[in-house]
User: Fold this.
Amino acid sequence: MLNVAYVSGFSTKSNHEERWFELSQTSNDLQDVRMHVSKDSEWKMPRTGAAITATCHIYGEQIPDPRHQPAEGEAQRMLFNVALRAFKTESASILSIPTPKDYFGNISPNRKNQVLPKGATHDMERAPYNADGTLKPEVEATLSSVPEEHMTDEGYISSMGNPTELDTRNNINKIQAATTREEMLEVIRAIHEASGKVNSTQGNSGMVMLAGCIHNARIVPPNDFVPKERLEILLTQNGVESESILVRYEPDFGPAPGAYASKLVIGAPIKIIGEVRVKPLFDQAGNVVGKTTYIRARRIETATLKVDIQSFPAWWVERAKIMNEAVRKREEDREVRRRRATDQAA
Assistant:
């Protein structure tokens, strides 16, 4: 089943013995993304401050809720969490790293994309960018080479994910029409997104593509922390509930979560396109006691057999039975409502 994530950011810290490192994508260190690396891997851990793109697999797990202290005889409350395991790390390009707007947040009256709590200030020593938005020299030195003289070369442009000759010519025309280096990079970044490896203009740099079956789904109503309702999906790729991947559908645009929820049934094969998100956990006193990771879905599609899912495993048969029963019950309820409306009209 489709399972890949491309995450770009700036290395902040690592643990060589436990084989993990973290990438920052915003000025808020509580949102740093942790990557695990196989102990059998010979790759070296990235040095602090380097611009890195990690290619990962996504795994679901359950962890104890650090906000819950169970009383005697009470079960520990568990949370679904996403773990990322990097199987490839490389120098990031200037096209895939978080932009200054992504990193510092686009502060606006509606607080959209505000990465720091109100009143907090950016740690400019930690930041990879200077105050004017330019990369610090030591960070820029770690980028992979993207020669500007090659940016209008057909071979380079077509390698970004637009294979047709017409697309390549159109993209070159767009690049040549740019009047400044910044405009050129914005155009190229948009073209680069077509490769499916980066989604930097939508928030943080990175993209996740997953396919699997719906193990469960629910609508979470608005609360003090999230002013809009959201759709939570447990996506399974192996039929094991405790290893389900937590997906939250929180679109900036498009159908509301409730519109999707009314169409989803347990067992249905779906494809998720989104990005990794990290959520800090606070106790009642407002202290940070932990973090959880989840996948924020921007698009939900029907998975394609032989493309997104190579074949349906044996455990899916049981999920399909539940799905078929849910569809049958939904159709029965719809028919009952239709007859009731007809009777009332008569």
Remarks:
- The helical segments are 100-104, 137-140, 154-158, 165-177, 181-192, 257-261, 315-345.
